[in-house]
Amino acid sequence: MSKQVTRVDTLFLHQTGDDYLVVARRDGKRVLRGKLELKETNAGPRPLRFLVTRKGEDSPRDPSQFVELARSAARIRISQQTPKDGRDELKEMFDGYQLEALTVRTCRRCAVNGRYSPITDDTAIKAEHEHICRDCAVQELEGELSFAGGLTQAAQERLEELLYETGDLTRITNLLQGELDPDLTKFDTISATTEDVELVETSTLDLHPNLKSMLTERFDTLLPVQSLAIDNGLLDGDDQLVVSATATGKTLVGELAGIDRMLKGDGKMLFLVPLVALANQKHEDFKERYGHLGKVTIRVGASRINDDGNRFDPNADVIVGTYEGIDHALRTGKDLGDIGTVVIDEVHTLKEEERGHRLDGMIARLKHYCEARAKRRESYGGAQWIYLSATVGNPKWLAQNLRANLVEYEDRPVPIERHVTFADGQEKPRIENRLVRQAFDSKSSKGYRGQTIIFTNSRRRCHEVARKMDYNAAAYHAGLDYGQRKRVERQFANQDLAAVVTTAALAAGVDFPASQVIFDTLAMGIEWLSVQEFSQMLGRAGRPDYHDKGVVYLLVEPDASYHNTMEMTEDEVAFKLLKGEMEEVRTVYDQSSAVEETLANIVVAGKKAKALNNRMLGELPTTHAVGKLLEWGFIDGLDPTPLGLAVTRQFLSPREAFAILDGIRKGSSPYEIVADLELDEEGR
């Protein structure tokens, strides 16, 4: 024995039944495991039997070898989990050999398995009625995670951090059962920040008298972002890119320029947004606010009659429209009159895969329209362009390429708490219900109840979740008609609803003053949210005039995805979004989008289409795109064919155009063709 073990760092003993477990460690590794039985002698307790365990078998050794092993040890430790009689017996034995043995707290589970794991108040983890070491706690947590459905490394690391912080395994495993523990679910707080800006007094503004009187009745000074816009030439006709958080007053920047120029006879205002729901709300707001100063109309999609029954009037003084609605007017040669101001809200849409290239093309075509009209009419000097966004990762680059002055205001009016908890799809409504009740039962210092926006990934799920709320809740999505959407908006504004459950329709900025945002899923349709979309959506939580803070909850389903094309799982996406940096706003073209925009530019600008291609944000391979248009029979020379006109006026991609043509040749009914297109788009 002495030849085999010349030095032992630690000798550890723990009582198991009538025997003592013996573990010897050297250089951090176990070198021996055995069993010791004592006998009572005239000199006190002494070794009776010493067994060394190797490969599951116990080999007897001379008891004196245990004494030799103990004398070689730098430290002798007795487990506190050993009963007091056993501890006293061991200490008496070691005293007889003039050896010092200390009693230490150890992990019982490790001791049972022949491991020596001392624990302290700082490292012990509470597990039901005992304290265990971190390794055993993590091992048990991993077992719970495996049962719940494996989490990604980022999520596991987050739970392990919480385990070490709290020292309570039960609290952490309860999170996996959907229990709400705000101290544990809280991921971080985005602090309220206020940039020091000298505010502009409304009485000093060089505005049309009618607009100025309206403004001074409402405000003594402008908000910071509005004051910065004035300082950067807003009322001098300078183009601007305004980047500032939700609820900081960006919309009024566009209104100040647009309504002022309209009243002074410098052309009408176009206020353009990505979604019909948002266009409807802006239309109602502008009619109420400015209807007595001029005619307000709306243009959405390709329809000549809007869903509120009003006919689009191209001669109106203020036109609220969707990107596609105005682009359709351009593609079909509509006369929009003299345009004095174009406001592009949610300009970060330029980066979206489906819509980005169309917005990029629409901006180029609308600029071409305004410039061509200015050449024909000496009295019309062209349009001022105002671009608005809450989320841009590369604002300087974007402003430079849009040829606009950058107005950037980094401000968060109220702090936002961000929380993460884990739950499966069936469990989420129960948690949401509790959070909605909790918010609605409280009031801010400004006297407003807490109200909630729940974001989910499908219209069907909107209704499913809304039905399960105890308090009044309503689904809100693009599938509702105009009257239904307005009713929900009115009820929320009156605080008659505790929650709305919505898809992407609200993310773009429909004005619901919510204190709380819950992510039922982190997907929209069959795509994961981008950092930009996520930031935009969570920014709906907390309004300075209503709430003291905003609260955001991510309800994450471990190992979940919502379509077989999704490469990541929801827990992986959650921490990517929470820690991610804002994506850059750039428009990227593939062959299909390059062909689609080149065809639209040819339809609108003819031989000047190449110049339009060159002024767009994304790089278009013009020669290649023209070649494909010729090959496919969409153009003849640089003139669109009837087929090309039909394709561009219906916003069809080449793939969709060929699918429709193929269906017609096969004799398929229109319904069959549309169904095939929809199924193909959903990836089925």
UniProtKB/TrEMBL annotation:
The keyword Hydrolase applies. It comes from Haloferax chudinovii. Keywords: ATP-binding, Helicase, Hydrolase, Nucleotide-binding. Pfam families: DEAD, Helicase_C. Residues 231-410 form the Helicase ATP-binding domain. SMART domains: DEXDc (SM00487), HELICc (SM00490). SUPFAM superfamilies: P-loop containing nucleoside triphosphate hydrolases. It comes from the Archaea. Residues 435-586 form the Helicase C-terminal domain. PROSITE patterns: HELICASE_ATP_BIND_1, HELICASE_CTER. InterPro entries: DEAD/DEAH_box_helicase_dom, Hel308_SKI2-like, Helicase_ATP-bd, Helicase_C-like, P-loop_NTPase. This is DEAD/DEAH box helicase. One of its GO terms (molecular function) is catalytic activity, acting on DNA.
